[in-house]
């Protein structure tokens, strides 16, 4: 230990300086210089902050996007190992973008729906695990990653690339849950060679039921039809508008039904996972992961066992409008414990079978709540039914990012994902070079006092009793 000299008191000698015109002028000059220095510091700080990598999602103008698209694409490819470029190449080298995915609908109108249904039935019956012969059977403490997929293949390609670069990904089982049958998406998923892979298909999709429930039946009431008018024309769901007076839209109800079916399927029906007691991590096709996301999730799980027995949900993503390196630098190893909030902690969330059984036992609360969002419905279930409320351990420096510019809730003229993906890659790259990934330990903090949450009114879109019944019946699904 370094030895410090003993503290000795010294007598202070006061000097009396008279307020001469010269000293007054000198003081004013000194104050002026200090103010100038402070102003320069503030200006420099602002300029630096403006140039920091901001993780915001404001897309460029169409002109800017078209002029920079090639450069951005090239930059994205340069940051990805050459061996992973294969996941980004469209089949037959065709140019595929998210904005062109509508062509899938036209393409599949020419295919017999019954053929698609038979293919889906075979996938769900056989439960084939790709690469199991290479990576061995699933271990009970392994993490199972479940990805909900629609048809935005460009986003999915980049999610797969990010997963391929994650540490310990070879130990996981990666399950893709689809609600749209597409051969190009199937080829992409089946080309994965870095871990075990399985595909499951939601059997009640709009694609396979285009003119009947759960799709849109021609005899259904129109969304904005008044209940009185619906009674006159006698549309078949006239008695079941939502709490805002609107009738069901299949494209919105499908997402919640798919999520609930998927959770029931992986926890209780698949042979490979129905006895699995490890964590199930839920992702979506437009997510992107950092390379230490599994490493950190394991650390969080151990931390919860030691210090937070009431934490039954792990969350790896957060929604931040502006995200820069300095925010990451201060939070890369911090985790916070807090009541689970649907709008904040639904991205990259993980829980185990014990938590799932509590949720499933409250199925009627989830399935009858008038909200088409699965996460809002889950929070309602937590507040109204669960004996042990959902309580989350949340990573402050996100390891799961949202890259989707367009989807069910958002429609834009420009749905290119390059700009957002490039920014995410830059944030991860800066954090990697600064040694902010793979922390040796975690710093646990408790959220500031949270106000007791009021019972919220749902967002509607879920008033149709047919959706309630379909949802409840999913807990009775056969293997």
Automatic annotation (TrEMBL):
Transmembrane feature ranges:
32-52
The positions annotated for binding substrate are: 148-152, 179, 254-258
Read off the InterPro entries from this record. GlcNAc_II, Nucleotide-diphossugar_trans
Q: Which reaction does it catalyse?
A: an N(4)-{beta-D-GlcNAc-(1->2)-alpha-D-Man-(1->3)-[alpha-D-Man-(1->6)]-beta-D-Man-(1->4)-beta-D-GlcNAc-(1->4)-beta-D-GlcNAc}-L-asparaginyl-[protein] + UDP-N-acetyl-alpha-D-glucosamine = N(4)-{beta-D-GlcNAc-(1->2)-alpha-D-Man-(1->3)-[beta-D-GlcNAc-(1->2)-alpha-D-Man-(1->6)]-beta-D-Man-(1->4)-beta-D-GlcNAc-(1->4)-beta-D-GlcNAc}-L-asparaginyl-[protein] + UDP + H(+)
Source domain of life: Eukaryota
Topology in the lipid bilayer is annotated as:
Single-pass type II membrane protein
What Enzyme Commission number does this protein have?
2.4.1.143
Q: In which pathway does it act?
A: Protein modification; protein glycosylation
Q: Does the keyword Nucleus apply?
A: no
| Family recorded in the similarity comment | Belongs to the glycosyltransferase 16 (GT16) protein family.
What PANTHER family does the database record attribute to this sequence? ALPHA-1,6-MANNOSYL-GLYCOPROTEIN 2-BETA-N-ACETYLGLUCOSAMINYLTRANSFERASE (PTHR12871:SF0), BETA-1,2-N-ACETYLGLUCOSAMINYLTRANSFERASE II (PTHR12871)
- This chain's protein is named Alpha-1,6-mannosyl-glycoprotein 2-beta-N-acetylglucosaminyltransferase
Organism of origin is Chironomus riparius
């Amino acid at each position: 230990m370094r030895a410090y000299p003993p503290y000795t008191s010294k007598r202070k000698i006061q000097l009396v300086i008279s307020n001469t015109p010269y000293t007054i002028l000198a003081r004013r000059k000194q104050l002026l210089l200090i103010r100038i220095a402070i102003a320069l510091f503030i200006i420099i700080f602002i300029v630096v902050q403006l140039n920091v990598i901001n993780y915001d999602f404001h897309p460029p103008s169409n002109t800017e996007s078209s002029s920079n698209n090639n450069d951005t694409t090239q930059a994205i490819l340069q940051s990805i190992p050459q061996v992973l470029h294969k996941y980004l190449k469209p089949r037959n080298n065709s140019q595929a973008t998210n904005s062109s995915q509508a062509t899938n609908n036209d393409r599949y109108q020419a295919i017999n729906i019954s053929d698609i249904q038979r293919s889906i039935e075979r996938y769900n019956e056989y439960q084939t695990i790709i690469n199991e012969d290479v990576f061995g059977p699933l271990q009970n403490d392994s993490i199972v990653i479940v990805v909900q997929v629609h048809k935005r293949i460009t986003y999915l390609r980049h999610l797969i690339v990010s997963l391929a670069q994650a540490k310990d990904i070879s130990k996981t089982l990666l399950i893709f849950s689809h609600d749209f049958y597409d051969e190009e998406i199937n080829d992409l998923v089946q080309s994965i060679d870095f871990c075990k892979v399985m595909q499951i298909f939601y059997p009640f999709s709009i694609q396979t039921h285009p003119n009947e429930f759960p799709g849109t039946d021609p005899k259904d009431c129109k969304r904005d039809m008044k209940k009185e008018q619906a009674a006159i024309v006698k549309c078949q769901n006239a008695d079941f508008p939502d709490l805002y007076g609107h009738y069901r839209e299949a494209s919105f109800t499908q997402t919640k039904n798919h999520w609930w079916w998927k959770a029931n399927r992986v926890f209780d029906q698949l042979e490979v996972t129905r006895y699995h007691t490890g964590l199930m991590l839920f992702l979506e096709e437009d997510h992107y992961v950092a390379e230490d996301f599994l490493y950190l999730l394991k650390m969080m799980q151990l931390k919860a066992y030691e210090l937070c027995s009431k934490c039954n949900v792990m969350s790896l993503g957060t929604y931040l409008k502006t995200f820069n390196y300095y925010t990451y630098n201060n939070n890369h190893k911090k985790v916070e414990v807090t009541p689970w909030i649907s709008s904040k902690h639904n991205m990259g969330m993980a829980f185990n079978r014990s938590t799932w059984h509590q949720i499933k036992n409250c199925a009627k609360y989830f399935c009858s709540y008038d909200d088409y969002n699965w996460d809002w419905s889950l929070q309602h279930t937590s507040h109204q039914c669960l004996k042990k409320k959902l309580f989350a351990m949340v990573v402050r420096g996100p390891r799961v990012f949202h890259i989707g510019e367009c989807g069910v809730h958002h429609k834009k003229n420009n749905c290119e994902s390059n700009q957002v993906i490039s920014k995410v890659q830059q944030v991860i790259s800066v954090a990697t070079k600064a040694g902010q990934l793979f922390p040796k330990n975690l710093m646990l903090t408790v959220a500031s006092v949270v106000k007791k949450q009021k019972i919220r009114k749902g967002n509607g879109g879920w008033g149709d009793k047919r959706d309630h019944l379909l949802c409840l019946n999913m807990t009775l699904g056969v293997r």
